[in-house]
Amino acid sequence: MKLIPALLFSFFTAMIFSVPAYAEEDLMVNSRNLTLSTAIKIAQAAIVECTKKGIQIGVTVVDRQGIVQVTLRDTIAAPITLPISKGKAFTAVNFNAPTSVLGDRANGPIGRAPGIIMSAGGLPIQAGGSLLGGVGVSGAPSGKTDEQCAQAGINAVLDDLEMSM
User: Helix crossing, 36-52 with 143-164: angle to 10°?
Assistant: First the structure.
């Protein structure tokens, strides 16, 4: 009969000492997000870069979930630039990749999903190894130029983002 209490004691002791392994597991995920002022700087810098090239664009900056933070349209940019820039930013952040590298997927079922635009001009915004958001540009004669303007937007804040990580 004394064997059963000893076994129970051993069992409960083992359980107590194994709990910390589970207790150390994180219960939440922390994420970093762009501030509104940072998103505005990115959008404005993209517009400035394209304006230097004589191009009027629309630009959208989204957070890491793909939700719009900022949308700007240069004075005479076509209205269609806004939904296209939004789609490019949304796609870049959801694939965590430049949209210019996703073209081969565009004809598959993913490329036809609502809100996905796999043409060049969308870039993920990353700093310190973390995905922070995405930027999409539309309105230039080529996606390559859209992407250059999007990169100029990121470059305008990248050093500050890296320093704050």
Answer: 140
- Per-residue pLDDT tens digits for 2-59: 655 555 555 555 555 555 555 578 889 888 899 999 999 999 999 999 999 999 999 9
Q: How far apart are CA 42 and CA 31, in angstroms?
A: 20
- Would residue 56 count as lying in a domain? yes
Q: In Å, what is the CA distance from 42 to each residue of 21, 49, 80, 145, 152?
A: 43, 11, 20, 16, 8
Task: Write out pLDDT tens, residues 117-158.
Answer: 999 999 999 999 999 999 999 999 999 999 999 999 999 999
> pTM of this prediction?
0.83
pLDDT of residue 23: 57
Q: How many domains does the chain have?
A: 1
CATH of the domain at 150: 3.30.450.150
Q: Say if CB 128 and CB 162 are below 8 A apart.
A: yes
The backbone torsions φ and ψ at residue 10, rounded to the nearest 5 degrees and listed phi first, read: -65, -40
CA distance 157 to 124: 13
Q: What is the span of the domain harbouring residue 97? A: 36-164
Q: Would you put residue 60 in left (φ > 0), alpha (ψ -120 to 50) or beta?
A: beta
The reply to whether 5 falls in a domain is no
Residue 61: beta bridge partners?
70, 135
